Amino acid sequence: MDKIALSALDLAPIKKGEHTASALARTVKIARHVEKLDFKRIWMAEHHNMEYIASSATSLLIQHIASNTSSIRVGSGGIMLPNHAPLVIAEQFGTLETLFPGRIDLGLGRAPGTDQLTAMALRRNNLNTAFQFPQEVKDLQRYFSADNYDAKVRAFPGEGLDIPLYILGSSTDSAYLAASLGLPYAFATHFAPAQFASASMIYHQNFVPSNALEKPYFISCVNVIAADSTEEANFLATSFYNLFAGIVTNTRRPLSEPTQEVIYKGIPAIEQAVQSMASCAFIGDGTKILPEIEKFVNDHKVDEIMATSYIFDNEKCLHSLSLLKEILT
User: Fold this and answer.
1) What CATH superfamily is the domain 5-223+292-308?
2) Residue 274 burial (C-beta neighbours within 10 Å; 0-12, 13-18, 19+)
3) H helices of 68-195, where?
């Protein structure tokens, strides 16, 4: 397990009683903490029209985090490419790579990162852009290529820069695309684990080597709530479960304090839905979590664990990430 890469995902969630500035400051604190722990990277994700998520302007947040750290890779998990013109993303990430050379990742997703009405506002009624995702990934590759020098449309800055692309997904469609393009693949196991096993198999079986990558590289983003005891971890995890219940019932709430029992206890439909979303969460002390992660990594050929920790208490969240590093080394 000491060979498994370890990274973090943070959406800058706004907690109960907190404001946006506090959420962004906490993301900086998490980034600095995992940098000291020698995590490989920290990613932010693009979401829109979500009152309690502060990472909507993802490129700007990446710049802010990179400015407040010194060595850790910083990137998107991901940029929802159908919301943007590929040329604009090439210019933005070309600028980021110029400012922070060798530290910027560009993870790309095809989902809108929001509801359909907001997607229409973002895409100006052109909802067919998701179907253009494979071509737009190739467009980005062309803009970053040094061979694009004689094209009529070029990305400045961006052209000729080595900015690694990652395909993100929560279904098997993305697995086929990442494999065919020979790109690293990151799966959203932290909220959509249903097709995870199938996607891993498809990606590994269909991978075609490319100039970017000789062999498959598979990242799984998972929820991790580690504590000094499994009893404490289970208590802290109620904040995470209650947050997911809000997503399931479309009654989103800020991340709140732990509760003695989950707020949806005794409602079977919600219990089942939350358990399904959280089926790949690792919750407990080191003795419990280590064998679970070892089996998970080996069964699914995972090269990198990307952890996200929905823990209300800031210090306990940092401690969870420290324990994860300790467990896996």
Assistant:
1) Luciferase-like domain (3.20.20.30)
2) buried
3) 86-99, 116-123, 133-144, 172-181
Write out pLDDT tens, residues 99-131.
999 999 999 999 877 777 887 888 766 667 768
Q: How far is CA 182 from CA 46, 199, 305, 326, in A?
A: 24, 15, 20, 32
Give just the sign of the alpha carbon dihedral 140, 143, 144, 148: positive
Give the whole-angstrom CA distance, residue 322 versus residue 62.
22
- The predicted model scores a pTM of 0.95
Is 53 in contact with 13 (CB distance < 8 Å)?
yes
Rounded CA separation 90/135 (Å): 14
Cα 211 to Cα 106, 162, 219, 251: the distances in Å are: 17, 12, 19, 45
Q: How far apart are CA 64 and CA 46, in angstroms?
A: 15
